[in-house]
């Protein structure tokens, strides 16, 4: 039963992980942790709700937890920060500047852009995944668009 969910939602979930994380290894870890957490919580899943939203929410929450831990560890003097590696350039070379600009967005805006534009979630689904109001999704999308426009305009100059 759970194998069907992995087959149906696996590729889309991995895409979400790749957009949230800046390194492929981190994305793969997040992907595996998300499925593990979902499997452990499978009995709490309400089948009347959208599985895609449920698994995406687990993924986003795990990502946020990782960010919190990273921020906490950065204050400890004995922890060395690893250098971030660039993701491989997207297949469509024409959009590489856009993908790079999206990766540079603050997390709150980047998550909304990834869910809405890259994964095709509706405003309502995006709000459910991120556990924020629909109006907040709309305002973050608007702000993200203006940040992206400014970033891309600056790059062209």
How would you explain this protein's 3D organization?
- This protein is mostly helical.
- The chain folds into two domains: 1-88, RNA polymerase sigma factor, region 2, helix turn helix motif (Rna Polymerase Sigma Factor, Chain: A); 93-157, Arc Repressor Mutant, subunit A (Orthogonal Bundle).
- It has seven helices and no strands.
- Helix 5 (107-118) packs across helix 7.
- The longest helix is centred in the middle third of the chain and has 24 residues, at 51-74.
- The model is unreliable at 72-93 (pLDDT under 50).
Q: What coarse outline follows from CA principal-axis ratios?
A: globular
- What is the first-to-last residue Cα distance? 53 Å
CATH architecture of the largest domain: Orthogonal Bundle
Structure summary, number of beta strands:
0
Largest sheet: none
Order of helices and strands: HHHHHHH
User: How many separate helices?
Assistant: 7
How much beta, percentage-wise?
under 5%
What is the radius of gyration?
A: 16 Å
Structural class: mainly alpha
Percent helix range = over 70%
């Amino acid at each position: 039963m759970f194998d069907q969910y992995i087959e149906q939602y696996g590729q889309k979930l991995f895409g979400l992980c790749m957009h949230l994380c800046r390194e492929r290894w981190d994305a793969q870890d997040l992907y595996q942790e998300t499925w593990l957490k979902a499997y452990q919580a499978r009995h709490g899943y309400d089948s009347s709700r959208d599985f895609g939203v449920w698994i995406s929410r687990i993924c986003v929450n795990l990502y946020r937890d990782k960010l919190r831990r990273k921020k906490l560890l950065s204050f400890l003097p004995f922890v060395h920060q690893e250098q971030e590696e660039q993701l491989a350039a997207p297949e469509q070379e024409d959009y590489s500047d856009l993908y790079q600009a999206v990766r540079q967005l603050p997390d709150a805006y980047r998550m909304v852009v990834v869910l809405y534009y890259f994964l095709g979630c509706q405003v309502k689904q995006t709000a459910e995944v991120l556990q924020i109001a629909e109006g907040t999704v709309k305002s973050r999308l608007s702000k993200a668009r203006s940040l992206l426009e400014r970033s891309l305009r600056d790059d062209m100059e």
